[in-house]
Write a structure and sequence with these properties.
Radius of gyration: 23 Å
Largest sheet: 10 strands, antiparallel
Low-confidence stretches: none
Structural class: mainly beta
Number of helices: 1
Bound molecules: beta-D-fructofuranose
Oligomer: single chain
Mean pLDDT: 96
Shape: globular
Length: about 500
């Protein structure tokens, strides 16, 4: 397929999208067909929330990047819209890479994205030139600005390289637009650059907001920057990260930096740095501020390293996380699924004060589209159990395991038996707080995924699973004696809420 015009993409969607729905998750956004990666342009527009995404409709592999498009009123039910951008100009012929969106004061929708141009250098190697571009539209159709690119190599700070200069996150404050963009600095690691504009078209460089200085991975990707609960928060996705204990894992990671925004120097004075999500599949998060003030985050529920690993006959590749409400508590970024998810809870099954000693299944506790809370405590504080396990997506052959060990303060998730026909990293160990063996889990499942929230959102961990849908049993186990309260709901997004 070589016609990468928007018309070709929209015709392709018209023809093939209707056939692709049987195996979709119920409330996690996918591309419908083809490939999806980063969330883009997640922002309110005319009373609804729009979400664009990195998209290649023609294959389940990454290809020249388009922008796919959906919108929602409640973050759970999504309406699919036609593809919004295709790589059809010289400056974006290598792809319309990640970016963001904002509503303009006159009601138009401004998209800001990275245009990539690939050129073969004198040494025969392909070199990539990345510049920032804008397109303006009405929520469905967008026109690229004739003056693109709006931010190019001439607006980089000294030593910056336009080979790695991408992923603008735009917002409006007062009567100005601002944008944070990642760039490879002279030390070959990531910087976040801050730009401002009066009209969205003419931009000027303001400052280096934050520097990696080779401390958290190498190049950074997909920045987001916003105030929250009295602090400023910077989210970035570092590549070539090295593991640091259980806090950061190697490869493509995600990091939250919190601190004070010094408005004189326009720099973030960071005070706290921690991982955003401790699972296997989470990257490139992006946030918006909802009409009611909530800061809501969505991310690509995938990891580059395992993104070639999928089921052969699945007609789409890539899904988003459930949108999550953010807050800061005890100096950490907390996250929980948007409260709107609770509207779609049906068929409540509840058990209180259940003794878990050995392995136990409970009538009505099963399923693959579910929202389940499990709170546990020891029978006697003097003799704490050694481990507690929850098995989900289980049958004779499959299971996904969540295991808690109070003595070391870790939760392990193991998806070795969760349907992947690939030999990839399947286990993640997560540091948690659990004083005296008291801990709370929330498990959200939507066919191909498991999202775990520990202690009301103090830690979150996201996992793709490909376990056959028939494997829906759940059981609980402990080596000692503990007491559990369990509430489980099915999630039904067909109902009208
Ligand atoms: C992050 C990323 C971005 C880039 C996009 C390309 O996942 O590498 O930096 O804009 O994906 O699809």
């Amino acid at each position: 397929m070589s016609d990468h015009s928007l018309k070709a993409a929209r015709d392709f969607e018209q023809k093939y999208l209707p056939f692709s729905y049987a195996e979709q998750p119920k409330f996690h956004v996918t591309g419908g067909i083809g490939w999806l990666n980063d969330p883009n342009g997640f922002a309110p527009y005319k009373g609804e929330y729009h979400l664009f995404f990195q998209y290649y409709p023609y294959d389940v592999r990454w290809g020249p990047m388009h922008w796919g498009h959906v919108k929602t009123k409640d973050f759970i039910k999504w309406e699919r819209l036609p593809a919004a951008l295709a790589p059809d100009m010289e400056y974006d012929s290598g792809g319309c890479f990640s970016g963001s969106a904002v509503e303009m004061p006159d009601g138009r929708h401004l998209l800001m994205y990275t245009g990539v141009r690939n050129v073969r250098g004198e040494n025969g190697r392909i070199e990539s030139f990345q510049t920032q571009c804008v397109a303006v539209g009405d929520g469905i159709d967008y026109e690229k600005y004739e003056g693109n690119p709006v931010i190019g190599a001439d607006m980089l700070p000294e030593g910056g390289s336009c080979k790695d200069f991408r992923d603008p996150k735009i917002w409006r404050e007062g009567d100005k637009y601002f944008s944070v963009i990642v760039n490879e600095g002279p030390d070959k690691s990531g910087n976040v650059l801050l730009y401002e504009s009066q009209d969205g078209y003419q931009w000027k460089f303001v400052s280096i907001l934050a520097e990696c200085a080779n401390r958290y991975g190498k190049m950074w990707e997909c920045p987001d920057f916003f105030p929250l609960d009295g602090r400023h928060v910077l989210l970035v996705s570092p590549i070539e990260m090295s593991a640091q204990g259980l806090e950061f894992h190697p490869g493509n990671a995600t990091v939250c930096m919190m601190g004070k925004f010094d408005r004189k120097t326009n720099r973030l004075m960071r005070e706290v740095v921690h991982a955003i999500d401790y699972g296997l599949d989470f990257y490139a998060p992006q946030t918006l501020q909802a009409e009611d003030g909530r800061r809501i985050m969505i991310a690509w529920m995938q990891n580059w390293e395992t993104s070639a690993c999928r089921l052969h006959d699945l007609g789409f590749m890539g899904q988003m996380t459930v949108p999550r409400e953010l807050s800061i508590k005890n100096g950490r970024l907390y996250q929980l699924p948007v409260r709107e998810l609770e509207r779609y809870r049906v068929s409540k099954v509840e058990y209180e004060n259940i003794l878990v000693s050995g392995e136990l299944s409970l009538s009505g506790i099963n399923g693959r589209y579910l929202d389940m809370e499990v709170s546990i405590r020891p029978v006697d504080v003097g003799s704490i159990y050694k481990w507690f396990r929850i098995y989900v997506a289980k049958d004779g052959e499959h299971y996904t395991l969540i295991r808690f060990r109070p003595d070391v303060g870790t939760v392990k998730v193991d998806r070795t038996h969760s349907g992947f026909p690939h030999d990839i990293v399947n286990i993640r160990e997560i540091p948690v707080n659990a004083v005296n063996g008291v801990i709370k889990f929330r498990v959200v499942m939507d066919r191909y995924s498991l999202e775990l929230f520990v202690n009301d959102g103090e830690q979150a961990a996201s996992f793709v699973i490909y376990t056959p849908i028939e494997a829906g049993a759940i059981s609980f186990a402990s080596d000692g004696n503990l007491i559990a309260d369990i509430v489980k709901y099915e999630l039904d997004t067909e109902i009208d809420r």
